[in-house]
Amino acid sequence: MSTQFEIRGLKSSIEGKEILKGIDLKIQGGEVHAIMGPNGTGKSTLASALMGHPKYEVTEGEVTLNGEDVLEMGVDERARAGLFLAMQYPSEITGVTNSDFLRTAINARRGEGNEISLIKFIRQMEGKMKELEMNPEFMHRYLNEGFSGGEKKRNEILQMMLLEPKLVILDEIDSGLDIDALRIVAEGVNAMRNEDRGFLIITHYQRLLNYVKPDHVHVMMQGRIVKSGGPELAERLEADGYDWVKEELGIVDETVGQA
Ligand code: ADP
Ligand code: MG
């Protein structure tokens, strides 16, 4: 069965303040959905709530991956079920090397008794790093420590490639990337596109979508999806900005605002 990911009426609060005010979204395997929107409209909150970040309380709604209740799962179970988030601001972890981290993550995803052999892991990791034009020394560096913005983003894509998730969420993977790095990251994403995997690409700018063609584009404002369309919607946003959407919908302040 091809992957089916569904969000229904999702509301989420941070420290008692409601940020997500009812999100509905359906992603089928093989599809790329882009969520675009100005800053402070709840895009990263959606990503964090879906991954089960403890700070983001889900107050209403349902999320299912292939019929399974995602909201019932802990963070590790979500990863095992095939959810993956490339974060806008990846954490640095001193004392844990990139390769240790990746192997642990892969084995957690594969489950007990099905661990990847060291040789196979190294071979896969080397292959993917080559595709991403990453220096092999990054294997032995502490996770994200001292990585540049672009190196962190490539490393997130490396994780995605090795973990082979069912639903990939990329949160502003394009920020901080120069044009060469953007192309490499986009090629990495495109190589992972298949019938069994859905993508939710969160981005402020349209430029990534020149390389990774979305099937559906959604605009987020005030913690809601306020407009959806095809790739032409992203092009219009690139050309004209977000003001026309606000005018069309009578929105004065697009951010989630002060509660
Ligand atoms: P976007 O990713 O669209 O720029 P965010 O989801 O990061 O927006 O933020 C939406 C709103 O939620 C903002 O008002 C932001 O200040 C608030 N917010 C997000 N994360 C936190 C947090 N950890 N603590 C407090 N407020 C937060
Ligand atoms: Mg954000």
Automatic annotation (TrEMBL):
<dbReference type="Pfam" id="PF00005">
    <property type="entry name" value="ABC_tran"/>
</dbReference>
<comment type="similarity">
    <text>Belongs to the ABC transporter superfamily. Ycf16 family.</text>
</comment>
<dbReference type="InterPro" id="IPR027417">
    <property type="entry name" value="P-loop_NTPase"/>
</dbReference>
<keyword id="KW-0067">ATP-binding</keyword>
<dbReference type="InterPro" id="IPR003593">
    <property type="entry name" value="AAA+_ATPase"/>
</dbReference>
<feature type="domain" description="ABC transporter">
    <location>
        <begin position="5"/>
        <end position="247"/>
    </location>
</feature>
<dbReference type="GO" id="GO:0005524">
    <property type="term" value="F:ATP binding"/>
</dbReference>
<dbReference type="InterPro" id="IPR017871">
    <property type="entry name" value="ABC_transporter-like_CS"/>
</dbReference>
<protein>
    <submittedName>
        <fullName>Iron ABC transporter ATP-binding protein</fullName>
    </submittedName>
</protein>
<keyword id="KW-0547">Nucleotide-binding</keyword>
<dbReference type="InterPro" id="IPR003439">
    <property type="entry name" value="ABC_transporter-like_ATP-bd"/>
</dbReference>
<dbReference type="InterPro" id="IPR010230">
    <property type="entry name" value="FeS-cluster_ATPase_SufC"/>
</dbReference>
